Amino acid sequence: MRISEEPIEKKQTSLAAAALTAAVRDHQQLALNWQARPEQLKTVRDFLQHFDCPLVEDSTQSRLQFLLPIAALAPLARAIQQTWPTDAELTDSLERVRAAHRIVWRAGRHTFDLTERGIVYGILNVTPDSFYDGGQYNTTQAMEDQARQMVEAGADVVEVGGQTTRPGGFHEISPAEEIARIKPAIEFLQKNFPQVALAVDTYKLPVMEFALDAGVDIINDVQGFDTPEKRRLLANNQAGLVTMHSNRTSEYDNLTTEMIRFFEQNVAQLVDAGIDRDRICLDQGIGYAKVADGDQDLAMMHNITQLNRFRLPLLVAISRKGFGKKLFGLAKQDRLPVTLIAESAMYFGGGRVIRAHDVQETKQLVELLKRIEEAYWYKPAGQ
Q1: Which of 68, 158, 215, 286 is least enclosed, having the fewest CB within 10 Å?
Q2: Three-class DSSP category at 84
Q3: CB 188 within 8 A of CB 148
Q4: Cα separation of 137 and 7, whole Å?
Q5: Closest CA to 245 of 200, 310, 197, 186
Q6: Nearest CA among 127, 120, 206 for reference residue 155
Q7: Proportion of the chain above pLDDT 70, given as a percent
Q8: What angle separates helix 359-373 from helix 336-348, to the nearest 10 degrees?
Q9: Which of 92, 146, 154 is nearest to 121 (CA)?
Q10: How far apart are CA 49 and CA 71, in angstroms?
Q11: What is the pLDDT of residues 267-292, one digit of tens each?
Q12: How many CB atoms are located within 10 Å of the residue 42 CB?
């Protein structure tokens, strides 16, 4: 037996076939074919019922076509190994499908496989004026205590920020001052927690140069690496990139279309500069609309599924942002519950890199959502 990916035949007109064709469009579901001998088809059909798959049987070619979420590939592989442990062709064919759909983010010293597991991207702002935690960690002791707490809570990445870009205006500081702010945090994290990926949030070329020379793994640029100089710098390094879409200075007639167009052009620029695609992570820029905390932010939470077409890591960066105030009048310190709810929706939409202030709660969230996604109950006969 074997599993393969092939286009759904256009000649099929049944509702089930139409469902397969339509559902695959969100780029998180796979339309697969399971080839088997005629006498095996009932066994395969019964097996797939455990995975809640819409099925289309093609008896003329002895195969079943079925729709499966990408997240279900891992539990499917485990169940196949239990049920048909000696069928090497079946196991190998599924592994080829899994390999073709892996989403891997290479970031400096680290490689994150986001296909089956999300990561927690912790925020450490060493600024006096960031929108949520400004002034809380801009002393040495406070910064070190918070960094240690984030790592112990399970942060996969710790991002150091020395220049706020909060909505409503901000005071721009010089590159030298920004470097002076982030340098102690970088050195502390590298010395004490070398196992954690280290990121820097900056849009300034000199700060990027400093961070990369210091061995930082990820650069997060809210301006989307918008100059040739930035792109050349990153092309000569192996750091990961978080590239952000921003529309603070413009209004859209069609947000989704414009956002996709931006990333098509932006990713092409980065790749043309010599940056490998698997180093790039996309950030929609929620909170960076022309009207901060408005309906565009909610629309971007909803349309994150549209970015799955890029087959790149997607950043969820909504931690304690102003939608909680807009919808419910919540103060910043009371927005964790709505943040976790919105992060869950975006996670199931494809966002696997969760940028968060609250590492412990977000780590629990990511683990729980992973367990839910893979929760297919299958027990082979006789076990």
Answers
A1: 215
A2: coil
A3: no
A4: 53
A5: 310
A6: 120
A7: 90
A8: 30
A9: 154
A10: 16
A11: 999 999 999 999 999 999 998 887 76
A12: 11
